[in-house]
Amino acid sequence: MAAEGAILLVFVLLALAAPLVLYVLVRDERKRDAETVADREAAERAARRDTRER
Fold this sequence. Notes:
The protein is built from two helices and no strands.
């Protein structure tokens, strides 16, 4: 009976921790990407360069 309780406890802890870990990872990724976001003009120039190369 103790083994089932331990397995249940581990499952509940993982179920609670997984969304929090994912939230932190996504928040960090968004913060990191915010530093490299191009403005509209730079994005349009890059898109035009891509079409010329093809």
